[in-house]
Amino acid sequence: MANVNEGGTAADMVTCTIDGVEVSVPKGTRIIEAAEGIGLGIAHYCYHPALSAPAMCRMCLVEVEGAPKLAPACVTTVGDGQVINTESERALKAREGTLEFYLFNHPLDCPICDKSGECKLQDYVHSEGRAHGRSLEAKRVLGQDDFGGDILYDGDRCIMCTRCVRFMREIGGEDALCVVQRGHRSVIDTFYDEGVGENLWAGNIVDICPVGALLSKDFLHKARVWDLDRTPSVCASCSQGCNIYLDGRDNAVDRLRPRQNTEVNSYWMCDYGRYNYEWLNRQPRLESPLVGGTESAWQAAVISLVERLKALPSGTRVRVVGSAVLGNEDNGLLARLAEVVGDGETVFRSARAADEEPCPGFPVLRRRRELAANVEGLKLMGFSRVGDDEGRGGLEASSGDVVIVLGDDLADLPEDFGRGAELFVHLATHASAAAAGADYVLPVTLYAEQEGTFTNADGRVQRFWPGLQPPAMARPAWQVLGVLLAGLGDGAAPADAANAFLRVAQIHDAFAGLSYENIGARGALVNELVRLGAGAGEEG
Amino acid sequence: MAYPYRHEQETVVLTRGFGDPRTRTLEGWRALGGYNALAKVLEMAPNDVIEVVKASGLRGRGGAGFPTGVKWSFMPKDDSKQPHYLLINADESEPGAFKDRELLRWTPHQVIEGALIGAHAIRARHVYIYMRGEFFEPAQIMARAIEEIYQANLAGRDILGSGVDIDVTLHLGAGAYICGEETALMNSLEGRRGQPRIKPPFPAVMGAFGKPTTINNVETVAAVPHIIVNGADWYRSFGTDKSPGTKLFNVSGHVVRRGNYELPLGFPMKEFLYDVCGGIRDGRQLKAVIPGGSSVPILTAAECEELALDYESVAAAGSMLGTASVIVMDDRTNIVKQVRRMVEFYAHESCGQCTPCREGTEWLAKILRRIEAGQGTEEDLDTLLDLGANMTGTTICVLSDSAAAPVASSIEKFRDDYLALLGRAPEAPALAAAH
Amino acid sequence: MSSRADAPERTPLQGGNEGWAGERGEFESLSESDVRGSGYVGKRPPEGGAAGAACSYPFQVAERDPDAPLFEGPYRERLEKILSRYPETRGALLPVLSLAQEIRGHVSPATMDEVARVLKLEPATVRGVATFYTMYNKRPVGSYLVQVCTNVACNLCGADDVMEAFLAAVDGAAGDTSADGNFTVIEAECLGACGFPTAVQVNERYFENVRPEDVPAIIERLRAERAANGKEG
Q1: What is the C-alpha separation between C186 and C194, in angstroms, rounded?
Q2: What is the model's pTM?
């Protein structure tokens, strides 16, 4: 017998049988949830676990023994001793019939519809619908509309599940969408010319639309979804750390979509992060290590740099600049290098908004003031902020004997930046004019091209995976830095990202006890006392 | 009575005063004994009022026929924590039904008195009369009546010095048949789209504005003052054991005398049509009868021969008494045309929430239009039946079932009418001349 | 009252059916005012009268001004009375939309927006509600909105012919407003007067027992009322 929910006393539990499987659930659990718990997905459109359930699509009707009518599984609570059959003849006929009604007016747009391949109408009709349509009538035409912002609406494809209307009201915080008219003439619309473009959460309605009625202009006709690679990752646009998928093909990111995490972002992400991915596709990239401006092989470059570092006198001042869009592993080993080479400061620059914007329906989720993913991680590892809220300024030229910059593009700095330094190293993804005079330019990977972790504003360490192939000669920064440290006699170079993380955890108490295993796909919290002691967590 | 005259077979209870303009005034209603029942009820405990109505066997007259006293007993017995509401369903929009309009425009105080009694019984301090928007004239009459009762301390604070407070508000709809469905009515009262709600929760638990609510039809509450004054046994002396009391039978279509007739339940259909209503017009023959408004299955003339007009008997005959809105069709009637028109009505009125109804009603209508135009096939008949089956029992409310009922019953019983139209481009001459 | 077991076919009254009663039979004494109840009702005060009756004024009237301000003067008082009858502001939405149409003749986007602001609702919410209900005109209609019931009970008794007669009398297509701005003729669903076919609603009045031959007289009557500045009978 499956016990779907741990906890709850025996008195609070009810037992039912679904398709022959006995399952015990807390009282008040709905049939669709109980079924989900035993891995049985009941077909549905209007139901969504994070929204209210109107029970109007009529797809989830199941047969309950002894009841005269079929019951909607999305709102019917499990009764003790109930015998539920989702595949009875009546239930199957009802689903087949309902799907046929959906197809009565739905245009067969699959060849030109972006949703094809991830469309719930396709999926259910394919598995349970009629083989042939019986309608001889002309389909009604309701037309298309621009809802403002990134959203296009196709009224003909709409199945009137009203998920979008309820999302805007319950999660997005405003009644921006409504059902207009009634009956077979009903459509979704905004208030005339007012659109949803001002709402920071509107992009989510494209995700939750079961069919291709709501489309993203950004993604329109860009790619077929079955051609896309889908990689679990973390959004880098602010310090909330929404879990996402990178969807791309031909080694470019085509779109970001939220990945469910009940502790961080529920099923959602904000539009600011959602549409901010082109920077991952920016070309051209640094293709090769440069030593004194000349292309070099890695080995030669590394050996040369290690010699230069060894030759530095003790007490050398070191200015190290970290990157808030690179992981704990990369920045952690950078800080270690700074420590080993001399003393000085570890700093970072990052853009910051005037305020945060909470998600009205799920306030744990907000677009944070910090507009980069790993500001918290940097703080925990002792980096301090310089520069302004645009992420500019704060770096004087050649203020230290040794300048090592990771990731920061130095776009606001002059070409002679670092000329006065004893040693200027730039670990970067793209060439920078300010690093024209750098002694060493080493190509590293974007976070989307490697494994690693970010620490979000609430102290949650979350893993990301590589969704893009880096240029052939680029390396993860933690790998480069690990080799340099090994060359300086500071431990062995970590063989992989997991070990790089463990190495950083050894140095910084905040990460003590964490590992890739226990971080998993959902993330894990850092040591809270260390976090608060480090003054981290303050929004700033 | 086929207003303004009355048949000798009628049992005049609710229709007393119909056709007399004085009846609608407070003074006129009082002259007929009005508001004695209210005065009596205000001295009774609410539970006792419920018991009297339960004992009378009064059944809801809005179509469902649910025992009214039982419905009232579902309400919480204590209104100290949250207000209760009584809603009077005056949204009469069922094709064929025109009884409530007569009650509202001739005897508004009868309805108000019954509502006030009901409110006291269910411990409600506010009665909303939800009247369909098209009933502007009955609404003005009702509005005047409401002015009168407030002036006479029959509503508002401390009614007749009893310590009971009950407010009455007349709320107009704006054109939506579906708002006659009790949960859609509540949504409409709350200023929302008139879409039915899923049950549970039931109105008596969570209804209008989230509070315990009872919804009663106009004709139902109109009977209540008479039950209070004359007693439950008196009410049971009319009608049958399972369907006691009198009913307004509203008859339309091809009879000589259309109109409202108040008769005891259980009255024989044949006598009703041929005696009370004067028989079929123009000397024609009876072809079909819809006994309870367009939502119920059609009956053939033969099925009416031995039929009694009460809830049980009509159900046993395969249809429903519903609102007792009897629509009579003679032998010139083009059944397909009338069914098409009814289905178009449902397609127009569907709220659009549930897919089988939203898409199905329009699909049925399109097929029927095609058949009527001579472009149908016999396969279309099978499709109509199967679509209708998929529209029955699968939706939040029964509008969908109501659209399917005339289609299924007419194909079953008047298949020849359909067959005559198949594959013929112009309409058959004999049917073209009929209505 | 005697029974009428063998009632003769109804004979037309002089001038044709007056359109407001059933078979007149013995009730010769009934006047139009008796049946319509207009004498009993009298003239309703624009500020609403008893608060419980404030939410029930006719909102399809011949006199209207699309540019009139919405809730000023007596209408402001009526608005307050309406609001006082509902535990939640939103409950007043239908009566307030109705009042807006009573004043302006139809519910435009600007009107929806204004109503939304007054009730502190979002405009899209108001749009969703206003467009659900048939009686809220989304665009202006003629001074008289003539709605002919063609549903089954009236259909059995010739409603289609009555509809044709009205369209011919105003010389227009269904849904269009006549050139002189007086009439818009549309089909309606069941008006709840099935015993008196064909039932026709003209603004706030029902005309019953209408036959095609009665239509010209009804149109003439309405024209005359309009000419006399919309004074209703």
Answers
A1: 18
A2: 0.94
Q: Which residues is B26 bridged to in the sheet?
A: none
Residue carrying the six token digits 């039904």: B97
Answer whether C114's CB lies under 8 Å from C68's CB.
no
Q: What is the DSSP letter of B157?
A: S
- Are residues C106 and C162 part of one domain? no
Q: Which CATH number fits domain B246-330: 3.10.20.600, 3.40.50.300, 3.40.50.970, 3.20.20.10?
A: 3.10.20.600
Of B8 and B269, the structure prediction assigns the larger pLDDT to: B269
Interchain pair C121, A191: CB under 8 A:
no
When CB atoms are compared, the residue of A55, A68, A70 closest to B396 is A55
% of residues, chain A, pLDDT over 70: 95
* CA quadruple C127, C128, C129, C131: dihedral, nearest 10: 80
Q: Are A308 and A452 in contact (CB under 8 A)?
A: no
Q: Tell me whether B402 touches chain A (CB under 8 Å).
A: no
Using the beta-carbon criterion (under 8 Å), do A178 and C113 form an inter-chain contact? no
Cβ-based burial of C13 (10 A; exposed 0-12, middle 13-18, buried ≥19): exposed
Nearest to A175 among C112, C113, C122 (CB): C122
Q: Is B384 on the interface with A (CB under 8 A)?
A: no
| Residue C25 placed within a domain | no
The per-residue pLDDT for range A55-112, each reduced to its tens digit, is 999 999 999 999 999 999 999 999 999 999 999 999 999 999 999 999 999 999 999 9
Residue where the block lists tokens 């990157």? A323
Q: B281-309 burial string, b = 16+ CB within 10 Å, else e?
A: beeeebbbbbbbbbbbbbbebebbeebbb
Give DSSP secondary structure letters for C70-121. SS-THHHHHHHHHHHT-SSGGGGHHHHHHHHHHHHSS--HHHHHHHHHHHT-
Mean pLDDT of B96-112: 97
CA atoms within 13 A on the CB side of A4: 26
Please state the φ and ψ torsions of residue C19, each to the nearest 5 degrees. 75, 15
* ipTM of the complex, rounded to two decimals: 0.94
Helix (H, G, I), strand (E, B) or coil at B143: helix
**Chain C CB contacts of A153 below 8 Å:** none
Q: How confident is the model at residue B1 (pLDDT cuts 50, 70, 90)?
A: very low
Contact of C135 with chain A, judged by CB distance below 8 Å, is answered with: no
CA dihedral C42, C45, C46, C50 (to 10 degrees): -110
Q: Domain spans of chain A?
A: 2-87, 105-221, 290-533
Strand partners, B156: B166
pLDDT band at C126 (very low <50, low <70, confident <90, very high): very high
Report residue C74 as tokens.
Answer: 């007596």
Structural domain containing residue C100: 51-130
Q: List % helix, strand, coil for chain C (3-state, nearest 5).
A: 40, 10, 55
pLDDT tens-digit readout, A180-234: 999 999 999 999 999 999 999 999 999 999 999 999 999 999 999 999 999 999 9
**Cis bond leading into B4, ω under 30°?**
yes
Question: Cβ of C195 and B144 within 8 Å?
Answer: no
By Cβ distance, the residue of A54, A98, A134 closest to B356 is A98
Q: Which helix (H) or strand (E) holds B263?
A: strand B259-264
CA end-to-end span of chain B: 26
Query: Contact partners of C by the rule of 3+ C-beta pairs under 8 A?
Result: A, B
Average pLDDT over residues A109-138: 96
Chain B residues 194-213 with CB within 8 Å of chain C: 194, 209
Q: B335-429: which CATH topology?
A: de novo design (two linked rop proteins) (1.20.1440)
CA max distance for chain B: 73
Dihedrals phi, psi of C66, to nearest 5 degrees:
-60, -20
